[in-house]
Specification:
103 residues, alpha/beta
């Protein structure tokens, strides 16, 4: 009986510890494009948009997130908390569009 209890406790401990730690993902803004164009992340992950262009950009998903202006050579981060598919754009350059998928 004691061995079975220890085994169950060890299994429970391992399964709790097996949950993946949040990851950080980077989207590069360059040449008036978001790269990657579609990014899939897990809930709790951090997404960083790094502006490598010479002009400011925004990362804006209607009523979900808005970076406001990200200066050249600056970045902005967002913690993906709610699962869903989020199409976003740069409000300064509306032809710049991409998608964030949160699982």
């Amino acid at each position: 009986m004691k061995t079975t209890m220890m085994s169950a406790l060890l299994t429970a401990t391992l399964s709790v510890g097996a949950q993946a730690a949040p990851q950080t993902h980077t989207v590069t803004i360059a040449n008036l494009q978001f790269e990657p164009h579609t990014l899939t992340v897990k809930r709790g992950d951090r997404v960083v948009w790094a502006n490598k262009d010479l002009v400011p950009h925004t990362v804006t998903a209607d009523k979900v997130f808005d970076s406001h202006n990200i200066a050249a050579n600056a970045s902005w981060a967002y913690i993906a908390r709610t699962p869903g598919r989020y199409d976003y754009m740069c409000t300064l350059h509306p032809m710049m569009k991409a998608t964030l998928v949160v699982e």
